[in-house]
Every structure is written in C-alpha cells, then in structure tokens.
C-alpha cells in the first residue's frame, strides 16, 4: 500500500469487521439469528439497539439465503467451493459445517494478513472451533494462516490481484469446479477500478461461478448523505457508490464484466419477497420496536446481488429474478417545489427534534411540543415547548418552559395536539419508550394575549377521562381530527399503535369540550388498520391517507369519513395514478386538494416530496422538493408541518431520525416550501 493515509484507511476498514461481528453476536443473543459460533469469534460482547439487530438480521438472512441455495442446487456435484472475500471474523464456515452442509465443499476465506492471523489464533485456541475444522496440525505457510481439510484461511490484500491469485492456487483453489464468491460489505471499501478488476477476474478465471454481494446503495438522498458522511469520518469511504449509485447500475456492472445472469434487489424487497410471513412476524415481535422509518430507509440503502455464469439453468438464480421490480420504476414527477430556510429575525434556533407535533394556535403563532431532539446541548425526549411567531415577514422563535404536574407527561413522542380555541389545546396519547403503555391526555392552556404575540406561558393540566374514553388515549402514531356531527364538535381519534397492538384500526368520537365518549354509527368499507398515517378535517369529515399497515407495509389508500344523517360513512377515494404507498408524512387540505408532504416509501430512486391529490377527480401529481438552497440534508419524515394559506406556503418544522449507527440527523432549521406555482386556483 502506497501512502500513509491508505495504510490508516485499510486499518479502519479492518476495524469494521470486528464491529460487525459484535453486532451480529448481539443479534444472535436476542434470538434474531441462530448462530452459536459468533460469540466465540466476536471477542467482546455488547448489546446493540433493536434497529441494529434488525439491520444485521436482514444482512445475515440475505447471505444465508444465497449460500444455502447454492449448496442445495449443487449438492449432487462431486465438488464445489466457496470463496469468502474480506471474511473478517465471520462464522459462515463453522455454521455450515455444523449443519452438515459441507460434504463436498471447501471454504476459502481471505482477509488482510493481520485479521487472518488473529482469526487463525482464535480458532487454534478454542476447542469448539478447532474440533470442527480438524486442524491438520502444520502451521500455515506464508499467506495461508490456517489450513484444514475443507477450510483455508488466507491473509492477502484483496486489491493485490496477482498475489491473491498466487495464494489461492497455493491453497488448492480449483478454477474448474463451481465456485461461489461472497463479498459482504467488502467491494465498496476498495477503489472502484480494483473492485471492478476483481469482479472481472472472477468471471474470466472461473467457468462455472456465482458472485454474491451485499453492500450500500443510493448515496445522494438525505439518508445516503448521512451514511456517506459517517463512513468518511471513520476513514472508510464507500468508493463504489459514486460509480454504481443504484441497483440497476450494479446489475449493469456485473453483466458488463463477464457475468451472464444477474439478479439484484434492495433489502425492503428482499424482506417482503424472500422471507416467509411467519418469519417476518417472528422478527417483528422479538423486542419492542418503534423505528420503522429508519428501518425502511436502512433497507432501501442496502442491496443483495447474485450474479452467475456457466451454471446449469436449474442452479440459478440464487435470488428470484426481478424483471418487474415490485416498486415499478421511478415515480413520475410533475414539477418541483422550492425549499428555503425560514427567514428568522431573532430568538432561539428552530426546534431540532422528531416525533413532535406542531399546531397553529392563532394566525402566525405556532406551538411545537414533544418529540426527541436537542435540548440543553444533549439528545433526549424534549420537555420545552417551542413557539414560532411571525412578525413583518420574519419568524421569531422562543422556548417556553412548561409548568407540569409530572415531568414525565411532558416528554412524549408520536402524540397529537389539537387546537380547540386560541387559549386551549388538547394533547392525546404518545409514548415515552416503545414498551410504555402510552400516555393519557393533557390540556394546554394559553393566556389570552394580544393577537400578535405567542404565549409566554403554557399551563398544563392532566385530563381525567371517563373509563369509556380512556382507550382513545393509550396509543401513539395515531391521528386526532375535528369533525362535526349534527352541528356539534367532536374529536375523531383513529388508528395508531400501542404497547400490545403493533397496529390499531379502531376509532373513537369524543364530544368537545368535555371529552365524553360518544357512540356514533359508522357504515361503509372499513380502512385497513394503520399508524403513522395522515388525517385532515374536510367538509365536516376526515380524510385519512397512507400509513403503515399490518406486517409493517406502507399503504397507498385514501379514505373519507363523511357525515350522513344518522352517523358517518367510510368512502374510499380512488387516485390515479395510484398514490405511492407511504407513511410518516404530514397532510393539509386546500381548496379541494389534499397535500401530502414527505414521508417514507419503498421507492429507493427518490424520496417523497409533495403530492397533490385532486379530491374531485382523484388526479394525483408528485412534485420533487428542490433543496439546492439548503446546506444540509432535509429529512422529511417524523417532521411536522403547518400550511399558511394566504402565502400558499408550507412551514416544515423539525424532522429526521436515528440513522442506524450512522448518527442522529435532526433538520437544524424550519424550512419553507413555496407551493404557489402548484396551487394555481382551478
């Protein structure tokens, strides 16, 4: 290796193997994957977060799916071999051997010399491991750090192709028999010209082969920027991404380098298509979990690819072929919406948080409450209220501390806030941790002030509910919307989830202001259970759109709950083209049009911008958000937004999330989206 920086970088890359072994080990300890060898190889034990567990679970499943498929399809051949590139402290060989799957297969593992030496020493020093291999006794020669009958561990830098070839030959690799190459988050750390050369070398030298890759994709969206920044800070830059930014580019890469078949899918698609439903459910219930947005974003930024050549048709592909992607192609965009940082006159920075709620308590005064974010220089569930007030075209931000009977009640995420008058708002539900039972309701009381200023004090009172109304409160990721029935005002609480139910489909009518539970008949097709959907008041009823349904799948349905003489009726609104399924968005209604803002969907090719649905015709138009004037990634999920009809502007407040182990991203400032060009009156 030439330069000093390249040396330190290769050292950092070696470190990624150790940290991934620790994460896999933690996932195994919680029952995500069955692997008793990980703890022997990982060295140190650390408990990781549920989101990390899911990430390593899907990675292990994708690799196992393809490896076991290869072994199954070639089981009647006299000999096959597996070559794991950059294997680190992986337990693959020991797992396969223990399962009795290596009758005629030799496993070769290659990694940096010092990693291979460490692993060899570990195996020799541990009875459970050395007994499985049947150590052939002799110390490894040169680059061969360990040699058993069906297991060879080689210490070679993958980017030195001629040396790799020589060492593999020395270790007994046979070019003429079917070979499976595995590169699990490895190629991306190499310079693209070198990884390309390796892919081509494998195709040219092995007449019958398969190549399995698992690594990152989609570098240019907000999550991709945060992901890239993380790896750059670790000095382990992701080199493949610039040249091969999406699944299609990776597929073209392999087909252009000598491979004849190539199937590729991102991990959302893999999870949905290749993991049986009962197994999906098992994993989804292993531990309390409430980070759906980050989980789906992580999955849209990693892919699994299986390429092959010269193999019998019956042996390929290792992945179902994706001729028609399950999320068909890019979403057509009708235009763009400009985004600009909100002009601020003075005051504290904008609320940096997610999972919060914002509400317009009177013209030009916005109250934001709850969520997880930055407070007093640290990340926590936020306790302070945040008030934005507009004066002469500029927004001023102030923090209002709450006087609250029990501080715990003020620290909540995924609640709702409904403004009932300019001096009164109601907080419904929300949670502290995902295993909590959910929180009840709070009254927020504001002093009557002159119209121009916001409250400098918010009195908080617990709401004592009748038992019948209590069920409405113990939930989160739900919606609360004002409706009118026979001239009376009600709050309609719908959907969400609870500690016991991962998704709810029930609803409650609470008569305001005393919040008594009212049984009002509802007819019509009942919407699928959902949480993280949007709900808007419209013509006395409610518009429900999107959300995350059962089995953690995004929904694309839109329903109207409309008033009839004796109750309400659910009515499905057909959209064309069909609304792309999404959740964790916000929504507003303006002049017969439903505006959906941001959210998460499974279309990796772009992130959701603003979608406008004409409620008369069902016509659905998508607009991309132009972020060229922002200096930071704009994450439009877990945000809140307020529509300012006079200016035809949307004020987006907060948003972001915990991006896997890449760090927490919080949008630093409120952002104004100008909708005047797309809301030209009919």
TrEMBL record:
Pathway: tRNA modification; wybutosine-tRNA(Phe) biosynthesis. The keyword Zinc does not apply. SUPFAM superfamilies: Galactose oxidase, central domain, Kelch motif, S-adenosyl-L-methionine-dependent methyltransferases. InterPro entries: Gal_Oxase/kelch_b-propeller, Kelch-typ_b-propeller, Ppm1/Ppm2/Tcmp, SAM-dependent_MTases_sf. Keywords: Methyltransferase, S-adenosyl-L-methionine, Transferase, tRNA processing. Signal peptide: none annotated. It catalyses: 7-[(3S)-3-amino-3-carboxypropyl]wyosine(37) in tRNA(Phe) + S-adenosyl-L-methionine = 7-[(3S)-(3-amino-3-methoxycarbonyl)propyl]wyosine(37) in tRNA(Phe) + S-adenosyl-L-homocysteine; 7-[(3S)-(3-amino-3-methoxycarbonyl)propyl]wyosine(37) in tRNA(Phe) + S-adenosyl-L-methionine + CO2 = wybutosine(37) in tRNA(Phe) + S-adenosyl-L-homocysteine + 2 H(+). Its EC number is 2.1.1.290, 2.3.1.231. One of its GO terms (biological process) is tRNA methylation. Residues 1-21 are annotated as: Disordered. It is an enzyme of class 2 (transferase). One of its GO terms (molecular function) is tRNA methyltransferase activity. Interacts with RNF144B/IBRDC2. Probable S-adenosyl-L-methionine-dependent methyltransferase that acts as a component of the wybutosine biosynthesis pathway. Wybutosine is a hyper modified guanosine with a tricyclic base found at the 3'-position adjacent to the anticodon of eukaryotic phenylalanine tRNA. May methylate the carboxyl group of leucine residues to form alpha-leucine ester residues. Belongs to the methyltransferase superfamily. LCMT family. This is tRNA wybutosine-synthesizing protein 4. The lineage of its organism: Eukaryota, Metazoa, Chordata, Craniata, Vertebrata.
């Amino acid at each position: 290796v030439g330069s000093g920086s390249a040396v330190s970088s290769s050292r950092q890359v070696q470190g990624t193997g150790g940290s991934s072994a620790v994460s896999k080990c933690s996932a195994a300890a919680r029952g995500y994957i069955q692997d008793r060898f990980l703890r022997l190889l990982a060295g140190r034990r650390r408990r990781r977060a549920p989101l990390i567990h899911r990430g390593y679970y899907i990675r292990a499943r994708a690799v196992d799916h393809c490896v076991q498929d290869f072994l199954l399809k070639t089981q009647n051949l006299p000999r096959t071999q597996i070559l794991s590139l950059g294997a680190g402290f992986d337990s693959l060989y020991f797992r396969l051997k223990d399962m009795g799957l290596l009758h005629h297969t030799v496993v070769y593992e290659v990694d940096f010399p010092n990693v291979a030496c460490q692993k060899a020493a570990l195996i020799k020093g541990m009875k459970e491991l050395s007994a499985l291999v049947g150590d052939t006794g002799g110390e490894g020669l040169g680059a061969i750090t360990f040699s058993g009958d069906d297991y060879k561990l080689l210490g070679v830098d993958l980017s030195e192709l001629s040396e790799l070839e020589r060492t593999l030959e020395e270790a007994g690799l046979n070019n003429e028999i079917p070979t499976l190459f595995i590169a699990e988050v490895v190629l991306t750390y190499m310079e693209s010209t070198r990884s390309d050369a390796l892919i081509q070398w494998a195709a040219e030298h092995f007449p019958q082969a398969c190549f399995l890759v698992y690594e990152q994709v989609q570098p240019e969206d907000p999550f991709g920027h945060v992901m890239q920044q993380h790896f750059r800070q670790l000095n382990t830059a992701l080199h493949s991404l610039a040249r091969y930014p999406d699944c299609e580019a990776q597929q073209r890469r392999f087909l252009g380098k000598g491979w004849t078949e190539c199937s590729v899918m991102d991990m959302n698609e893999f999870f949905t298509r290749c993991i049986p439903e009962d197994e999906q459910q098992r994993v989804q219930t292993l531990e309390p979990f409430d980070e759906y947005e980050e989980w789906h974003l992580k999955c849209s930024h990693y892919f699994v690819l299986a390429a092959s050549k010269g193999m019998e048709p019956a042996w390929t592909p290792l992945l179902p072929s994706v001729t028609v992607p399950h999320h068909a192609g890019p979403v057509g965009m009708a235009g763009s919406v400009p985004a600009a940082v909100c002009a601020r006159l003075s005051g504290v920075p904008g609320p940096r948080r997610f999972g919060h709620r914002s509400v317009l308590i009177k013209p030009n005064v916005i109250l934001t409450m709850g969520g997880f974010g930055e407070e007093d220089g640290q990340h926590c569930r936020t306790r302070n209220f945040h008030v934005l007030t507009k004066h002469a075209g500029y927004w001023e931000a102030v923090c209002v501390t709450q006087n609250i009977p029990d501080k715990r009640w003020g620290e909540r995420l995924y609640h709702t806030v409904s403004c009932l008058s300019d001096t009164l708002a109601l907080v419904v539900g929300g949670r502290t941790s995902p295993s909590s039972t959910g929180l009840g309701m709070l009254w927020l009381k504001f002093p009557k002030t002159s119209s121009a200023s916001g409250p400098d004090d918010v009195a908080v009172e617990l709401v004592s509910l009748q038992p019948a109304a209590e069920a409405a409160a113990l939930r989160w990721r739900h919606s609360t919307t004002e409706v009118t029935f026979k001239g009376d005002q009600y709050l309609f609480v719908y959907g969400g989830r609870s500690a016991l139910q991962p998704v709810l489909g029930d609803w409650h009518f609470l008569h305001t202001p005393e919040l008594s539970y009212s049984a009002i008949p509802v007819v019509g097709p009942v919407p699928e259970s959902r949480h993280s959907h949007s709900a808007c008041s419209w013509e006395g009823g409610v518009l429900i759109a999107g959300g995350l349904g059962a089995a953690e799948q995004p929904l694309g349905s839109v329903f109207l709950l409309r008033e009839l003489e004796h109750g309400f009726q659910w009515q499905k609104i057909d959209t064309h083209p069909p609304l792309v399924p999404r959740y964790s968005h916000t929504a507003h209604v303006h002049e017969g049009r439903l505006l959906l803002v941001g959210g998460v969907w499974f279309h990796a090719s772009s992130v959701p911008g603003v979608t406008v649905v004409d409620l008369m015709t069902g016509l659905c138009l998508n607009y991309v958000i132009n972020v060229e004037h922002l200096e930071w990634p704009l994450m439009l999920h877990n945000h809140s937004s307020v529509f300012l009809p006079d200016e035809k502007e949307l004020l987006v407040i907060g948003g972001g999330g915990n991006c896997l182990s890449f760090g927490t991203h919080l949008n630093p400032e409120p952002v104004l989206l100008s909708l005047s060009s797309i809301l030209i009156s009919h």
